[in-house]
Design a protein that fits this description.
single chain, alpha/beta, Transcription Regulator spoIIAA, four-stranded mixed beta sheet, 4 helices, STAS_dom_sf, STAS domain-containing protein, STAS_dom
C-alpha cells in the first residue's frame, strides 16, 4: 500500500516521499531532492504514521540532496517512534544525509538494520 503516491507516479517523479505498508513494518521511501517542496508529502506520511504503531524503516538510499526540512522530517519520525514506542531504522542513506545527521549529533537516533545471514 502506498499512502501518498502510486508506484507509477513515484517512478516518474524526480523527488518524493512515500509510505509503503510491508505488513509488519512500514517503510518511508525518500528519493531525489528532499526539501521544502515536499512538505505536503511529508505531512501526509507523518499523519499516517501516527495511526499505527508499527516499526518504521527509512530508506533514503536514493536521496541526492536534503535540506533542513528533510532532516527535520526524519527527526520527527524518530521522535514519534520514541514517544509511541516503536523502532525507527535508517536502512540506507548517502553521505548527504548521514553527514548532516552526524554534524547535528543525531546519528544515534535511528536504529540500524539487523545483519542479514
Amino acid at each position: 500500500m502506498t499512502t501518498d503516491t502510486t508506484a507509477e507516479h513515484a517512478a516518474t517523479t524526480l523527488a518524493g516521499i512515500e509510505l509503503l505498508d510491508l505488513g509488519q513494518v512500514r517503510r518511508v521511501r525518500l528519493w531525489g531532492e528532499v526539501d521544502g517542496a515536499l512538505r505536503l508529502q511529508a505531512s501526509q506520511v507523518l499523519a499516517s504514521l501516527v495511526t499505527r504503531h508499527e516499526p518504521v524503516e527509512i530508506d533514503a538510499s536514493e536521496v541526492t540532496f536534503m535540506d533542513s526540512t528533510g532532516i527535520a522530517f526524519m527527526l520527527q519520525i524518530s521522535s514519534l517512534g520514541r514517544d509511541e514506542e516503536f523502532p525507527v531504522t535508517l536502512l540506507a542513506a548517502p553521505a548527504v544525509v548521514t553527514d548532516v545527521l552526524a554534524m547535528i549529533g543525531a546519528s544515534d537516533l535511528f536504529g540500524t538494520p539487523a545483519p542479514t545471514t
